[in-house]
């Protein structure tokens, strides 16, 4: 082979031999050079890929810090952080106050984590992230503010039919979700209380719209935060039905801001399902819910209330003389709680608004709610599967309601509904110091779902 290779040039004519020699030498140099650069490229690529996997190399973040308001955030008229959030560390650190969701079981005894939820496992994962990360900036006011009664939490325990509004503010004020740093806030809270404005003689029902208009104008003048998004990352909370018209002079609030309201009818203008959120109207109760098993509930269904809607008139006129469905035109002379405890199903019928406290009443006393309120965007509808613990009927179904409820009992479906009622009770209870998964945390999660995922610079 060596002799054959050596004699190869002799086969060429003499004039081509120098050319071939130069070409072979050039090709050899080119191969050496290419191999060297290929080795450098492979080595560099390996190092870059390794660093990327370890999280060292990342694309640059396009987040610009928020500009500060015209007045310093921590100066007058703002509240010092220690007074704004006195229980923050206690709220985060007290593990004994956590109330884990119970493991749910199917009919065959196997664990079923999604019976009362649309997707329980996803909720639990996202809830944990919310509890760890979410921050709310509450427009602050001093205690000597002329409208401190409207803008600050109550010192006393909330009470009455519209206590949900006050409970939320009181719980948020003492929670770890509150921040004094607006640059880290996911949402901005407009802290005015519609219920308090309604009872304030300086404002009253007739002056609420003007008060809200002036308040929003003030914050847009002093702070840059509203103007960045047109109010889309702002929210307010209202439980009284007056709140539905309170924003009529401030259309940006109605159209852009998140409205957390009890009167959540998607049939009426001003409420936008998925942008806005429904908060349950709950009569405050401090005691634990009573235990009363299905075997002790002998009445099929129960309703009592004033006749302030066609739906209620229709319901009572249809079933007033029935022996299994107990309906009453007014308040009972006997304790309301006794009828709730004796009944399998408790009827929530629309009044002036789609919402009443009757759903919360029913759940507290272990009674399966029957919802007769067309177009009602039910509380926590993003999270809970209402069909698993309630019976939602159209108003047109009132004549066949008895047949529907009887079939639920005959088929054993009622027992499943009752079990799930007991599982969701804690989501419909308020506490001055919030407890995991209670009404406060559920409303916070609804806000978490509606937060903006993009930070917008000024």
UniProtKB/TrEMBL annotation:
UniProt KW keywords: Glycosyltransferase, Golgi apparatus, Signal-anchor, Transferase, Transmembrane
GO molecular function: glycosyltransferase activity
Listed GO CC annotations: Golgi membrane
Main localization, broad class: Golgi
Family: Belongs to the glycosyltransferase 47 family.
Membrane topology, record value: Single-pass type II membrane protein
Location of the protein in the cell: Golgi apparatus membrane
Basic and acidic residues compositional bias, start-end: 87-115
The protein, known as: Glycosyltransferase
Species per Swiss-Prot/TrEMBL record: Salvia divinorum
One matching Pfam family: Exostosin_GT47
